[in-house]
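Think of the structure tokens as a kind of shorthand, similar to the way a musician reads notation: each symbol stands for something richer, in this case the local conformation of the backbone. In the example below we present two proteins back to back. Begin with the first one, reading the sequence and then the tokens, and try to describe in your own words what changes along the chain.
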Amino acid sequence: MKFRFVDRITAVEAGRHITGVKAVSLEEYFLQRGLGFRKHFPATLMLETLLQLGNYLIYETFHTKLALLTLFRRVTIGRLLTPGEVMTARVDLISVIGDNVKLSGTGYVGPEVVIRGEGCVGALIDLERLADPGKFQRMYRELCRGSVFPDKNGNG
């Protein structure tokens, strides 16, 4: 991933779901312009944040795979994010059929839904075809550092 949009992974249950956060700052490259700042974090990057979070779930589930997006069923944008806001996101692994996965995800600011993606299908690809496995694993561990994950019995 050339640009990383997930700032922290807060919980993950392999094969089921993952949650994480994206804090929007004025320092974001995509908010800066030659003559000032954009007022909103683009909707496409909000979606990319969900997709990246989904790939971290795929990695945690399969350890040697990532997914390439092949289909969206529906994406709904509630509103755009502004600098200073923190989006909490959850992505669920709906199904695995052969070498394909189906994911759905939602991003929230507080209780408000700001983005929802449903029926996202991705083709599973070997990690080493898309990224350096060692670098990807280090980045993933860094995103998880300081987070509390439940143990196998569901205890935090």
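Once you have a description of the first chain, move to the second and do the same.
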Amino acid sequence: MDAREDCKKAAGVVEPVINRGDCEGKRDCEKVCPYQVFEVRTIDDADFRALSFFARLKVRAHGKLSAYTPRAAACHGCGLCVEACPEDAIRLTAARSPAPSS
């Protein structure tokens, strides 16, 4: 069965939000997302500085990797990423920019 079959919402209705203090960059979200919404890479300096002291220690311990969502508008809200994340660092929220109606 294609994982996309579980994605019932239209693209752009919801978007994944990453808690950078919890994310350990394990790439599970990248692996399960049928729409390639995620990219795991080195955390941006500004995002790193915004973390608490203890979160910065944790992020350093995990190679300063974090998930980002450069293609968040492609999210269909299936929740596979939320289920796959071992740190519970992902939540789905209403998209900031509503999807255009067809």
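Compare your description with these statements about the second chain. The chain has a mean pLDDT of 89.
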